[in-house]
Task: structure prediction
Amino acid sequence: MSGTLVLVRHGQSEWNLKNLFTGWRDVDLTEKGHGEAKAAGALLKARGTTFDIAFTSVLMRAQKTCQHILDAVGQGELKTERDLALNERDYGDLAGLNKDDARAKWGEEQVHIWRRSYDVQPPGGESLRDTGARVWPYYMHVIQPHVLRGETVLVAAHGNSLRALIMALDGLKPEEVVKLELGTGVPIVYRLNADSTVASKEILE
Result:
């Protein structure tokens, strides 16, 4: 018996639009972001997908994306677990800064290292490895058991928390995961084998 895991990065946020480091700052979706989330739900509905449970972060941009998807598939009241383990990577002192201003202050190379390295932390913040250190146990102990019982599970979260999860699912190396780009509002559908390995992966665009 195999289950299905659907991962969706939240739709465009107000700070994505403004080119700001967001992290744990709780900013809303843009109009485009709401549309992306609703479109993701429409894609899943067209496939006949329904969910047994949903998981999201404690940040509103992921929660609203999750709700749009559930509304679209006719499950607006579905049980949804919210946990900071699924939060975006914490950018620490960079949060709220314009990315171009950060480059002017610290230099292009240093900002690129903070944004794209696997294990280098920005000042006061988390590396991608740190993000994974909270995502992976939460997935293993809380989310994965539902999938292995044959359920269909939605996870609406963030670029870096999902990159960390995909790293584990796809067996990516650190140098591979830092190149991974996730589109906003794009569902990624995994089917898992009974032993938790990946049977198939499909990106819905």
Observations:
- The mean pLDDT is 96.
